[in-house]
Design a protein that fits this description.
Layout (H helix, E strand, L loop, with lengths): L2 E3 L1 H9 L5 E4 L3 H6 E3 L2 E3 L7 H6 L9 E4 L4 H12 L5 E4 L2 H7 L4 E3 L8 H22 L5 H17 L3 H7 L2 H4 L13
Parallel strand pairs: 1-6, 2-4, 2-5, 5-6
Antiparallel strand pairs: 3-7
Length: 189
Amino acid sequence: MPATISPDALLAEINAGATVDLIDVRTPKEFAQVHATPAINQPLDRLDPGAILADRKSEAGSPLYIICHTGARANDAASKMAAAGCEHAVVVEGGTLAWQKAGLPVVTGTKSSGIDVQRQTQLTIGIGVLAGSLLGMFVDPRFGYIAAFMGAGLMMAGTTGLCPLASLIAKLPWNSGDCSSCVVPKAKN
C-alpha cells in the first residue's frame, strides 16, 4: 500500500511554500469538470511514469502526490510509479471528492452533459444484473451466470479498490476526450 496524505496536510505543505507535484489520474473529462487547484492531468490509462519523473517541478527525492476521484485509481497509479522507480509516490486520501468536501481550492469547469465514469459503470452493472436475472428466469437459467459474474466483479472492486470495468469504460472515446462528437446523454433527475 502506498503512503497517503490528507488533503488538508497537502494544502498546508503548499501554503508553506513547498514545490508540489500533484498528478490527477482521472479522465480529461472528469478533470475538466473539477480538480484540485495545483493538479495536472495525466490519465491513468496513458500514465507515463518516465515522462512524469522527467518533468517534475520538485526535487527528485521529494514526494509525488497522486489524486483521483476517491483514491482507487491513485493507488493503481502509485503502484505504477513505484514499479518505474519512484519511491515517493503518495496518494491523496479520499481523492478530489475529499478535497472538495474539505472546502479546499478547486478549479471548476462547465458541467458536462455526459454521465461520469462511475455512474456509467453503475449503469452497466445494473443493466447486466437485470438482463441476466430476467433472461435466467424467462429464457434459460444459465443466463443467471451474467448476474453472478457482475456480482463477483462488484465484490472484487469493493475489496481491492480496482474495477477493470470502470477502467475499460474510462477508455471509451466519449470519456477520454478524444471524441468531440461522442456524448453520453445526461440522465434526467
